[in-house]
Amino acid sequence: MWTGGTGRDWLGALIGLGLYVGILGLLTEGVWALLWKTTRKRLSHAVGVPFCAVLAAAGVWAILSAHREYAPTLDDVLVVAALISFAAAATLLPLMGVMSQRAVCGAAGVALASGIAAVAASGQVFLFHPDRAKAVTAASVAWVGIAAVVGLAGWGFQTSPLPKTRRLGLSLALIALPLVAMHVLLIGSPAPHERRGSNIVLIVLDTLRADYCSAYGGPVATPALDAMAHRGTIFNRSYALGPWTPPSMTGMFASTYPLGLSPGPTREAWLDEVWRYALRAEDRPLAELLAAQGYETCALIANLMLRDMRGMLRGFDTNCFSHPMIWRQRGLFGYFPFLQSTLAARLPCLVDKRYNDTTADLTRYALAYIRRHTTDSFFLWVHYIDPHAPYDPPEAYRTMTGPWRAFAPEMDTTSWFEDGVHEKPLADFDERDRPYVRSLYKGEIRYVDDAVGRIVAELARLNLGAHTYVCVTSDHGEELWDHGGWGHGQTVYDELMHVPLIITGPDVRPLAVDEPVSAIDLMPTLADLAGVAPAASWHGTSLAPVLRGERPTPPSRACFGRGTGFRVQTEPLEMVVLDDHKLIQGTSSGKMELYDLLQDPREQVDLADQHPELIERPAALMNEWRAAYPSTFEEFFGGEQPTQDRHEMMQQLRAIGYL
């Protein structure tokens, strides 16, 4: 919470603090007036005011806690314990003649300021800790205790008070020490050491279709991608391995062709298959190879499907996940969740309830990770869920207004929507609202493009560009009623299979490659750039010689794809792209479609019946490919059962909108 705060966040923190102090002061005055009257003015201020302040603070805590979603936690107990301790000290120490009440309050103020500094510092130090919340709490509470004891001594007991200048210096030291310790721990020794290899930053923008980006001639301004394409290599015809995340990403990371759904079975049978996508034990992901060479490896992901998919995080020594399908209250008092929850309950107009901003989370973590590894060789994989549905871009990236804030249409009979989100079944969707939906999708593209730009700018600011390769791609695209449907997983047309692929780096030449390339080649390419031998299990071919200018074009190869998701209405599909033509074939019926991508990039005119002679070669290649690579789960895994829980995976599929 205390990292990446904007000016508005800190303004809200100051206003919120003022409100807390004001409310506490008013309640304290009220309780003191009542107590003063009932005791007939027999209670001294030294005893009564701290006691009333504790009662008032407990009242504030109780009022705000009533609007929380969760039961009181250990943190709440610690807050109340600290209040009681302060009241006891402010009451008893002056009565005992040990120190003045002014000194007690001064020491308490130092402890509070030190605690705030400790929260900010430990939040950064433990940013990637697997149990960050407990670590931050423990460190902050411990430092508050130390600061309170030292502060009491510094403000002076009656017998030996410190001079004002020394007292001020001690107070400032207690506040500054956590921040200094943070700087030392995070920056460490600036002494350079020999790098093991070039850094690799892989950025996957989930559900980004290439033809919407200005870098590919599309309608959405993507200045960050444009800049990368200008100074690096852009592949104008890059193809995903599948039209939705599990087959696409498992195929990409294992550098092999993903599985397809069994021909013929019913939808229920497909549901029993789709949850089994995983990496096998013999598959060697790039992170594992680089970690063995001494690389630091980190995965920052926001796609539910990837978090628990077997093998996807193998080799990553650090990984963080930001959940895309939970609600966050956004408003001026984000740093005061108690206060914001209360306002949301009483004055909802002041607080906006939105989907969790995973793009902001992942960008913040990516920048922090890069800053911590300026002298290390690292492999950083950032998997943004945007522009995947629900479409809910920040206001600054929107160009239209519509009847609802976010778009996440209902799949089948499952509904996971709240107020302000379109929740009608897709079949009932009003065609007049489609431009607005497309504008939300475009807004999310602009948002993630800005995030990519921030990461690239940070690499440049830290002088890491000279030995860092940055690769931006996507796992699949999105159909926006191009062929009558919405979403992804149901077809293998280009709006789902044609994805961006842009690579920059120290020896990457500025180039636009027009030959078709496949995501199966991505891991061999990145390994080659890092100087690591490819895994024996990989089937792809490195494109690094093209990037370096060692050869003018990639080798002429057909690009295959399969793994159509369970949203398919008729049968699973497979595709092959050869030169300027694409052949699509149904796995059950054998029905074929043929498109000339050069003359008909939107795939509206099927040439299969008019030009059967054009089908022979791609059909033969597809038959060879199908025979060479197993297409069923039983063949692929050899009877081995995946370890992930089917029920849990199905819940994740529903959460992200696939079911």
Q: What does this protein structure show overall?
A:
This protein has 659 residues and is of the alpha/beta class. It has two domains: 7-187, no CATH class; 199-402 and 433-556, 3-Layer(aba) Sandwich (Alkaline Phosphatase, subunit A). The protein contains 20 helices and 21 strands. Helix 2 (45-65) runs antiparallel to helix 3 (74-95), helix 4 (101-125) packs parallel to helix 6 (164-187) and helix 5 (132-155) runs antiparallel to helix 6 (164-187). The longest helix has 32 residues, at 7-38. The two termini are 33 Å apart. The relative contact order is 0.12.
List keywords for this structure.
43% helix; 12% strand; 659 residues; 20 helices; elongated; Alkaline Phosphatase, subunit A
Annotate the secondary structure layout.
Layout: H1 7-38, H2 45-65, H3 74-95, H4 101-125, H5 132-155, H6 164-187, E1 199-205, H7 223-231, E2 233-235, E3 238-239, H8 245-254, H9 267-274, H10 286-292, E4 296-301, H11 304-307, E5 318-321, E6 327-330, H12 337-346, E7 352-355, H13 358-372, E8 378-384, E9 406-407, E10 421-422, H14 434-461, E11 468-473, E12 479-480, E13 486-487, H15 494-497, E14 498-499, E15 501-504, E16 511-513, E17 517-518, H16 522-530, H17 544-548, E18 559-561, E19 573-578, E20 581-586, E21 592-596, H18 616-628, H19 633-637, H20 646-655
Parallel strand pairs: 1-8, 1-11, 2-16, 3-17, 4-5, 4-8, 9-10
Antiparallel strand pairs: 2-15, 3-14, 6-7, 11-15, 12-13, 18-19, 19-20, 20-21
Helix pairs in contact: 1-2, 2-3, 2-12, 3-4, 4-5, 4-6, 5-6, 13-14
